[in-house]
Automatic annotation (TrEMBL):
Belongs to the FliM family. The keyword Membrane applies. Keywords: Bacterial flagellum, Cell membrane, Cell projection, Chemotaxis, Cilium, Flagellar rotation, Flagellum, Membrane. It holds the Pfam family FliMN_C. It comes from the Bacteria. The keyword Transmembrane does not apply. It is a peripheral membrane protein. This is Flagellar motor switch protein FliM. The gene is fliM.
Amino acid sequence: MSSEVLSQSEIDALLSAISTGEMDAEELKKEDTVKKVKSYDFKRALRFSKDQIRSLTRLHENFARLLTTYFSAQLRTYVQISVASVDQIPYEEFIRSIPKMTILNVYEVPPLDGRIVMEINPHIAYAMMDRVLGGRGVSTNKVENLTEIETKIMSNLFEKGFENLQEAWATLTDIEPVLTEFEVNPQFVQMVSPNETVIVISMNSQIGETSGMINICIPHVVLEPIMPRLSAHYWLASSKKERLPEESLTLEKRIRNASLPLSAELGVTEISIQDFLQLAVGDVIELKQGIDRPLTIKVGEVPKYIGQPGKVGKKLAIQIIDTVKGGDEDDE
């Protein structure tokens, strides 16, 4: 049966047609028994499953949030970037879909093979550059006549922005993005063959009053080594991984051998800065602590025990007589 869901009005129309004789129920049954053929375009090979597309969408939604934070801090204006769509298409189709003159940043992502392209709509790119130079974020599209200074400013801005991809992909794999090319003509950027499948992440971008698209093109060859990690099965399996008994014993042994600072507080007091500056050898400081009262024993900076001072042989010592209970820091 077809997976298409009919609306209530379509169901009513279908029942009405059958009851009036316009349609024959037996003919409908025969149609269901006929094998339906679905066309497949070999030039548009689907190499990514829906599950993997969803994983890539989640990763780059995080990347969009990181870019929003980064550009907001750099440009000091309203910035909003969000994922609009994630599609797998032939590389040739991606090149045809972007403007003939645009801002193209080509990155290598070692240790993965291949390169990634980030295409920024010229209106967005010029609004960003205008803000960096102290303007209001006005866009003037003259991408074919970029000066060396404008090229350097843009490439620096996008190079540092793309470093956020390393954090966004941290749960997937460790990469080190490096900007290798800055181009304005898509015809000069030939990363893979025209029919090679690529993932295109399209992001809606708002910079001040200027809006446009930022597209990230990731060839299949880049993601191929880490494809198994994009499935939900991988995440579920890794989340259920339990610590081995040997690992727990080793961790416990190391914790037991860790050193902790232990101190006994004889008392505290307060003096003025003037009195502090005049302190000299032989002066006596009066503490807010009676000699008959127990001392506070601290582990680190946290009060844990109450004790009384004494001696063990020729060494000073303190005997624990009670524990300090209550407070957020207490674990007993």
